[in-house]
């Protein structure tokens, strides 16, 4: 339910996006401030597990994410994953709580949300093109969880990847 709400919010993003934080009624846990680019800067290392709808054995692999600022208004990211390291490099423009990655065939945006949350989704969902959605949570200053759902060009779910990362340097 939460993921579908995040995805719907991402897909219909406008300059103002209302958010509702769910809380357990009997718990008085203070809300953390909204996620910022500064919270994410640095080098992250972790493990990913990718599961598939046909119940084949999950894939497990190491991950590395480097996030750096360039000229104060661009976020540079390098993602390395797998046993034969695959490298993805990209840069995005920072506009308040939104990071726009407009390079490549499918531009995506990252929304920085209250309570340490983030949502990554395509700027535009096009028919007959594969897509992915990501929900992230910074649960501690040096611990982050990400959940990535991927769909093929027919809109069929093809994988779910769960990533656990620790910040190893700032």
How does this structure look, described?
- This protein has 170 residues and is mostly beta strands.
- It is 8% helix and 51% strand.
- It has helices spanning 2-11, 37-40; strands spanning 42-51, 59-70, 74-81, 86-95, 98-101, 108-112, 117-122, 131-140, 143-151, 157-169.
- Strands 1-2-3-4-5-6-7-8-9-10 form a 10-stranded antiparallel beta barrel.
- The longest helix is centred in the first third of the chain and has 10 residues, at 2-11.
- It starts with a helix and ends with a strand.
- Mean pLDDT is 87; it is low at 1-7 and 11-19.
Specify the number of helices.
2
- Could you give the order of the helices and strands? HHEEEEEEEEEE
Query: In whole angstroms, how far apart are the ends?
Result: 34 Å
Strand order of the largest sheet: 1-2-3-4-5-6-7-8-9-10
Helix content: under 10%
* Mean of all residue-level pLDDT scores: 87
Low-pLDDT runs: 1-7, 11-19
Radius of gyration: 16 Å
General form: globular
SS-based class? mainly beta
Strand content: over 45%
Biggest β-sheet description:
10 strands, antiparallel, barrel
Total beta strands: 10
């Amino acid at each position: 339910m939460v993921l579908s709400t995040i995805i719907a919010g991402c897909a219909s993003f406008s300059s103002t996006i209302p958010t509702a934080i769910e809380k357990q009624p009997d718990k008085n846990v203070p809300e953390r401030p909204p996620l910022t680019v500064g919270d994410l800067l640095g080098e992250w290392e972790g493990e990913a597990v990718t599961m598939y709808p046909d119940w084949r054995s999950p894939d497990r692999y190491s991950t590395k994410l480097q996030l750096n600022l360039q000229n104060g208004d661009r976020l540079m990211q390098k993602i390395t994953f797998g046993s034969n390291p695959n490298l993805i490099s990209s840069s995005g423009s920072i506009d308040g709580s939104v990071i726009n990655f407009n390079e490549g065939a499918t531009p995506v945006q990252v929304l920085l949300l209250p309570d340490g949350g983030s949502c990554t989704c395509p700027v535009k969902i096009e028919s007959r093109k594969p897509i992915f959605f990501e929900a992230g949570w910074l649960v501690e200053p040096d611990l982050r969880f990400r959940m990535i759902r991927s769909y093929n060009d027919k809109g069929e779910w093809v994988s779910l990847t769960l990533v656990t990362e620790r910040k190893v340097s700032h």
